[in-house]
Amino acid sequence: MSTLSELTPVIERGLSLHKLIRLITHALGGEGYLNFEGNEFGHPEWLDFPREGNNNSFQYARRQFNLVDDQLLRYRLLNSFDAKMQWTEEKYGWLHSPQAYISLKHDGDKVVAFERAGLLWIFNFHPSQSYSDYRVGVGKAGTYRVVIDTDEPEFGGFGRVDHKTRFFTTNFNWNERPNFLQAYIPNRTAIVLALEETL
Question: Residue 39 has what DSSP assignment?
Fold first, then answer.
């Protein structure tokens, strides 16, 4: 996880999936979100308290919170993503809003889209396929902007989504929603869109 070594496909996959899984769990999980110490930055070790089965060892009876502070390690990128996710939830309040309306679950494309707390969530779990102008249904018409992007470089991503993009809805029924918009969704990436007037 050192920034001094190249970003291998295995590390990139791990970083991407860690963010996607945390975000979709946070968004769809219900009314609360439980985080175990160290999960916010992908702690590399398990927690195992001294017991007879491990010869009363203290080796794994600790959390290495110093990993986040080391600028040469990528754990800080995952921690930055977790902070962005938590701050955005505080602003839009999806944990205390009604359950999400899931408008798209496309197994072939590996795309999931839903609405919750006035936000449009689009996830692309495909390992290699990115989609340009991917059509997603949305309930409320208007102009949308990116508020969360798992592919931001500050979170260990590649910065493939332009945050200056404005997503305009079209009044046409799509996926049982009265409107749709089209978005570029890179592989193993999620974007969360909010109406421009709520930014």
Answer: G
DSSP assigned state of 66: G
Token pair of 107 as six digits: 């197994």
CB-based contact 189:81 (threshold 8 Å): no
In terms of phi and psi (left: phi > 0; alpha: psi -120 to 50; beta: otherwise), the region of 142 is left
What is the C-alpha separation between 36 and 104, in angstroms, rounded? 30
pLDDT in tens, 65-110: 777 888 888 888 998 999 999 999 999 999 999 988 999 999 999 9
The separation between the first and the last C-alpha atoms of the chain, rounded to the nearest angstrom, is: 34
Please work out, in degrees rounded to the nearest 5, the angle formed at the alpha carbon of residue 25 by the alpha carbons of 189 and 14.
45
Query: What pTM, to 2 d.p., does this model score?
Result: 0.88
